Amino acid sequence: VQLQASGGGMVQAGGSLRLSCAVSGGTFSRYDMGWFRQAPGKEREFVAAVTWSGGSTYYADSVKGRFTISRDNTKNTVYLLMNSLKPEDAAVYYCAAARELAIAMNDYEYLYWGQGTLVTVSS
């Protein structure tokens, strides 16, 4: 299974970006999907996750109300819409795939990872 993240870039504080993660080589609809991020000098942290059907979503408290995760199983793609971006949101964002997530924020539950896409937020 291969994951290709895209959509990162530079944006001013308060702006928006939409990240995409295209999945190939597997049955996309069998996987729960998540987004994580890692800022320089910091540990990787959970951002958001969505179950295989799209029926349930989970968010880190730091992004709740600003970010929206969604998926399109016809396009084998998961999205992360990021609104009201803050300088502290700047990081490399990674998408990941898991089978039957127990706890969405546990990165060890994810089997496959994308290469990351860089988000820079200027103040």
Report on this structure:
With 123 residues, this protein is mainly beta. 0% of the residues lie in helices and 51% in strands. It is built from no helices and eleven strands. The strands form two sheets. Strands 2, 4, 5, 6, 9, 10 and 11 form a seven-stranded mixed beta sheet that branches. Strands 1-3-8-7 form a four-stranded antiparallel beta sheet, with no helix packed on it. The radius of gyration is 13 Å and the shape is globular. The relative contact order is 0.32.
What general outline do the C-alpha atoms trace? globular
Q: In DSSP terms, counting alpha (H) and pi (I) runs of 4 or more, how many helices? A: 0
User: Using only CA atoms, what is the Rg?
Assistant: 13 Å
Percent helix range = under 10%
**Poorly predicted runs of 5 or more residues:** none
What share of residues are in beta strands? Answer: over 45%
Report the structural category: mainly beta
Cα distance spanning the termini:
37 Å
Mean pLDDT: 97
Largest sheet: 7 strands, mixed
What letter string, H or E per element, gives the SSE order? EEEEEEEEEEE
What is shown here, in short?
With 123 residues, this protein is mostly beta strands. The chain has strands at 2-6, 9-12, 17-24, 32-38, 45-50, 57-59, 67-72, 77-82, 91-98, 110-113, 117-122.
